[in-house]
Amino acid sequence: MSSHHVVRDQQEPAVIVASPAGKFFPKLAEMFEWSPVVVVLTEALHDFLQWDTKLDVVVGDMATMQAHQELLNFQMPYKQIESLDQKLEKAMDFLLSNNHKTVHIFSLKPDTLLAEKLAGSEIEVVFFTSEMKIIHSKASFFSKWVSQGTQFKLVEGELNSTENLRENGNVYEAMENGFANFYGKGDFWIGEILK
Of 24, 65, 75, 178, which sits with the fewest C-beta atoms within 10 Å of its C-beta? Predict the structure, then answer.
């Protein structure tokens, strides 16, 4: 019997690469092991094509796509979505129309406003920047089992209280191994600082 996992369409989070990866490439490479649907915005296309990784969709301007056509030929089949602006929104529309439930967006500047606009939809959004994994808590509560010393940063929103965390300005550090609990005054965005 094979030790490979069987993954059905839309079961694993889709991936949008919105910025050149830089420091977050190791996290991206880890996700590619599951063969997710990969959408690349043209801002990140040049770097992405150097990684020898399959993409499924390119969103952006046709001039950039045409400039990389030779390398894109090795990506066949893939879909092109032309857009001069609102590229991330077009990528999200594509994923929503194909019934994806979760998306991991690799971006140097998270677009939390777009994510909040989509909050009424069924899709869960997680951003990865070069320094944080940012999660949207729609339910005013977020809890995660962490190791002592794990750090979080409140990205957007307000908190009422926390448990098992020491606050230092806008950074929260786990005091011991266990659950880190955040209680918000509404929905909020919390970033786990990546080491």
Answer: 178
